[in-house]
## 1
Amino acid sequence: MQLIAKDTDKNVAHMLDGFAYPAILVSAEYEILATNELYATTFGEIPRDRGSRCYEVSHGYRVPCDQAGESCPLAACKSSGVKERVMHIHTTSRGKEYVDVEMLPINGEDGALQYFVEILKPVNIASAEFSTENMVGRSPAFNKLVEMINLVASRDTSVLLLGESGTGKELAAKAIHDASPRRSRPLVTVECAGLTDTLFESELFGHVKGAFTGAVTNKPGLLENAEGGTLFLDEIGDVPLGMQVKLLRLIETGSYRAVGSTQLKRAHFRLICATHKNLMEQVAQGSFREDLYYRINAFPIVLPPLRERSEDVGIIAKSILGKLSPDEKYRLTDSGIKMLSACHFAGNVRELRNVLERATIFANSNIIDLKVLERCLLDTAPRNKIAESVVWQDLKTQEARYLNDLLSHCQGNKAQAAKIAGISLRSFYRKLDLVRGD
Ligand SMILES: Nc1ncnc2c1ncn2[C@@H]1O[C@H](COP(=O)(O)OP(=O)(O)OP(=O)(O)O)[C@@H](O)[C@H]1O
């Protein structure tokens, strides 16, 4: 234990060493009074130049978190009188990091709230800085997602990941598995889209020799590969009805039979499902079983579309570039980030990734700027709407955008686009050549 404020009650401060995580003792006035050894080894010594209040040390703020637009566990704890928990991004010696913060109230002899113990558990499932390994983001919507994943990861509860295509459902499934006690066992993904009843059944359950034409040997199913680990059923909304009942039985009883076999096998796995579809609507239409819906939906997590967390675009884009070309060290300019942040991205992070991959091809150097990006967006992202207020652009760029939007409106029909633009088809082609050829 290390005393920060010398007049602190040492007996209370020594209590910090009993925690298995980094912990600090805080006064009701936000002053850090003492830290435990784990705090110093995990986050470093309290930097004296930042002040000694928790919001100064952990965030570099001049005011408590709730006055800086964030949730403040200490203020919440003061008003509730019980333990509070939030997901915060803290500034540490390594940069910005996700931290699971628990605040415990400690009453004095008179029964009044006197101290607070803040327990800080580092969260490794996501990064608030550049990372080529983890999911990245720092928006409030992403923070909420990290909080949900962190809460459920250590349990065996079935998780249903909901969100548009390309929002990161598969990455979230991996994050849950990696943070779960099953992390040393396999994570097995089953792409449910496009599988027929029979194919699905033999893929998942396996088959025995002679079960059907072509079954020349016994083949174990994916369930066997997932033993003790996590089974991730991607696009669960596409599982054929006939197979849904077998899936339900598997989840309810934990047992199954390989195709063509009478032997009952037991499976031990944690289930994560994902879909971009509205399963409730499918239930109403009769294409998804209601009983299965409730079985898989024990803990739903919604992945927000990228357009609702535009603050994340810059950090995600930099991380994707780092993944795409680890050796090249591409630099995305600030105006480039501003432009991408204003895009609609109907295909979410996957579409952003495609735009950046094209950018690495078009770029003549390692700088990815507005000019390069305009070209990428022009060529194949017609649904992207670049906000008017982004930056003043030259006429050629403006014209490119106009032609792009017009073509998108006309679904690629150049004759119709030329008619609306009030120019001949030949002139339209000429303009397209001009804006596309750099
Ligand atoms: N927060 C994030 N940080 C970094 N990369 C991300 C993030 N979210 C998604 N990605 C990347 O975006 C791409 C799409 O993600 P993913 O495949 O997980 O989406 P999905 O929701 O499962 O898509 P679909 O519904 O089409 O299967 C992947 O390359 C993934 O690595």
Note: The two ends are 63 Å apart (CA to CA).
## 2
Amino acid sequence: MPSRIKFGSPEPAETPAAPPKPAFPAPAAASPHKLDSLKRPPPNGTAGSPAPPKKRKLVVFDEEAEQEAKERANGAGEASPQVNGNGGVKRRAAWGPEQKRKAKEEAQRLRPEREKLPVFQGKDAILKGIADNDTVIVLAETGSGKTTQIPQYILRSEIPCAGPRIVCTQPRRVAAISLAQRVSAECGTQTGGLVGYTVRFDNKTSRTTRLTYATDGALLAEMLGDRDLEAYDVVVLDEAHERSLRTDMLMGFLKDIQKRRKEKVRAWKAEQAKSKGKAKANGVVANGEADGKKSAEERDPTELKIVVMSATIDAKRFSDFFDRAPVLYVAGRQHKVKIHYAEEPQPDFLDAALKTVYQIHMRYPPGSILVFLPGQEEIEGLAASIKSFLPSLQKEYPDAEELLVTPLYAKLHAAEQAKAFLPSPPRTRKVILATNIAETSVTIPGVKYVIDCGLAKEKRYHAGTGIDSLVTESISQSSAKQRAGRAGRETDGFCFRLYTEATYNGLEKRSQPEIQRVSLTFAILHLLASGQDDVFKFSFMDPPDVESIKFALLTLIGLNALDKRGKITPLGRQMAQLPLDPVYARVLVASFVEGCPREIIDLVSLLGSKDQLLINTSSTRDAANAARQKFVHRTGDHMMLLNILRAYEELDGKDERKQWCKDNFISFKAMSSVLDARKQLLERAQRLKLGDPDASAGDEAEPVLNALIGGLFANTALRQEDGSYRHTMTKQLVAIHPSSTLHGKKAPAIIYDELVLTTKTYARGVSSIEPSQIRSKAPSLFGSSLK
Ligand SMILES: Nc1ncnc2c1ncn2[C@@H]1O[C@H](COP(=O)(O)OP(=O)(O)OP(=O)(O)O)[C@@H](O)[C@H]1O
């Protein structure tokens, strides 16, 4: 068993489940020592849990019935169609009467819990604040009910109109999906009915959806087709403290949209008054009054309400940005979170995390443990070391609860991520090892303990070289508070910070806005496509670096998305409408010229799930590489991905495909996502009339590589006489990443998906090309200077 580490005062509380309290041994004591005798703790929820709420009569909204009536009115059948973000319509299987009954019961069961949340006390004040102001900032503790409750309060109000339509943004897709599911359960309705979600390549909303949890990126994409966001009456910007690139962009846009919509309503009202006057004079009843309720399409224009929410923002800055919007403070926290700091700095945070997991397991009552770690590598490392101690735990303490380790990181497929949210099996304590994707908004049921290593991997972008590097850095105080806030959501909780209090006090108060540290190519193209002609004048809360803007403009000019004067071209407009990074959007457009759209649509769909597709854990890496040898293509990684998809599609039946995926260390679920993404891209390409998306180059690799160069020409390097590769423009040294099938091989020139900076500058996702191909496909950039 691992030894213990010392946490400073207050000492961990003695609990009914705790064994006799031992003195903490020195933190670095290397030799595993025996665990204290373990008494079985009482089952979850029986010790110290509050008395069950008294039964009382509840007023329950029959939202499902309301929904059905609306669907019938809209001409929909039993199953309501889901309009996906790309205009496609999926059918949602309707619930049967038994499912409806169960959902209603569950909603009733959740109701008293919801009424205990701190925001419930402030409900009237919050609604009044929103009704009286264009924009409000809501500041309330983590877990107080902001994200799940406030949008529901608005839903049942008449702000700013009867039956308001609300969108609540989230910086992360995992949060958007899990919130929509939770709030649907609270409403007793099916996800995608009254409450739904929209994230890239996945949309669960229907005509009856009135509350949508959307990623900030999905809402931005919607703005390209609905410039003033007329589909919504209220936009709730949640987790504003994260300062994600897309939330910052939305804030700038929303200010203008709000003004435009106000003006529209004013003009419309004047028009209405005029025609009413005329009608009265002629003895006719005005249309709206005679027709009763109007359908969604004919709704009267509304002003846009904006609600900005967080637990940890600098409220004054946000208030100033939104023209001194009032700040509503919601007092209180439903459950306490006790913070423990390490008494001494921990030189090895993985070792400290391991010790703390076992320390909690042996001393504290049941409850899942959520451990925050920087990335996948650390998650895999800690999972392995936790598991290595399990046999001795079972041997020495046969009565002890099991430990179940579940990872949670962005590259993990959604179905695997979902496992972290499932309840723990009986007599089992779950240990969720997560990156900062679990930091905000999410409630992982059953989590009572948080272990925070104080670090996160952040993307840093170097304008000028185009290098993205993932750097492990200390988190901010705001992030630390958010992490602690993941405990204590259902009961009181504990947060163990693997750093000292002095270290905490020295952390930055807030995280640096993403807009100041990532590539701006997407942002600039989007601003221009949305009608923002001068990007330097856009209303950013924290303007990005001028050099980064210039670099993005030059890249977009190189892609022909902008003309030489920086004006968006028709091609640029098409690119902005593709749900892809501008570079890959350009590759897709180029594929129609090269005669290989079929292959490129497949390839960009594969690249979208690339990280989840090939299962590469440290323990299975060799076996996986051996199994996948048969897909290797002489030109490298891109054609190999296509080979994998082709082989998969030749198989019949789900079972056969599943087994094949298992044998080849390929994620079946990720493959399903690839096929979904492909379908959506095909629809989008057809809608944009880019050409025949079925045109194919057959087995030929050259057209595919040419199309790749059409967008990725800035991601190319030439082999030098000494065997090294140098970037075509910057002449910087670039090495082929060991994960590439071209690693150790000689290619005259290479094209790659990304550069990452670790011990060297590595190219990942690499294919071999000829210098002449670069010359002919990207002449404007390189001219004859290729050497
Ligand atoms: N999926 C879920 N399962 C169980 N309980 C949940 C779930 N989602 C929310 N809750 C309960 O609702 C409470 C409020 O959650 P909510 O996300 O609305 O809080 P919040 O104030 O937005 O928190 P944060 O600032 O951390 O996002 C949680 O503390 C928890 O008790």
Note: Residues 9-91, 286-293, 782-787 have pLDDT under 50 and may be disordered.
## 3
Amino acid sequence: MYHLLKGLHEYLTRHEEFSIVIIGLDGAGKTTLLERITAHYSHSTPRPPENIPPTVGQNLGKVSLPSTILNFIDLGGQRGIRSIWHRYYHKCHALAYVIDASDRERLAEGWDVFHSVLSDPRTLHVPLLLLANKQDAPDALSVADIRNDYHDWDRRRRDSARRRDRGDSNDPEDTANARIASLDVMGISALEGHGVQEAVDWLFLRVQNSRQ
Ligand SMILES: Nc1nc2c(ncn2[C@@H]2O[C@H](COP(=O)(O)OP(=O)(O)OP(=O)(O)O)[C@@H](O)[C@H]2O)c(=O)[nH]1
Ligand SMILES: [Mg+2]
């Protein structure tokens, strides 16, 4: 009887754990976002932005929900650190790619890196959310503009690939194209917190669904 009740108690109070990896170029605002998320769920104040150094390696943040634990892993975005991202793909349940929507000069670089994530076979079945960060900045591109900019960039990339390959069809591309077509993009301000709750809700829902 004791074992039965103990088992029942464990079943009712169990916590499922999911890992969510946050990636994107250096300076996109990933650690600021992690701070905002963990502060929100622990009802504390996020670390002041001036106390957040560039990430060399990773930062971890745990969010405890009633029956679920979300483990956020924020990875450094500097060029030399990006080569470790792939090590996290197979063990994560969702990916959030953060882009700095106010830095037009680095958008193409951001898309280049984003595309390599999207077309990596190891991310194929991992839910992927594109976060257009820094929406509070006066010159930030809106979600619609970010989406258009990415589609324009991708069209140019495909045109030049087609010219290079003299029109040969490229099957692996089809998978990436399908993912792009159904891509979810959300606008956030990691600094001020706008849209962050909605982004976490999206990730929570998608990791739950992917489990089923
Ligand atoms: N205006 C504005 N600035 C932001 C926002 N999020 C981050 N920043 C600023 O962007 C800069 C970089 O933020 P980080 O969070 O360190 O960027 P990161 O993506 O973690 O960078 P790496 O660790 O180098 O990969 C800092 O000056 C932040 O204060 C935002 O939503 N709005
Ligand atoms: Mg960082």
Note: The radius of gyration is 19 Å.
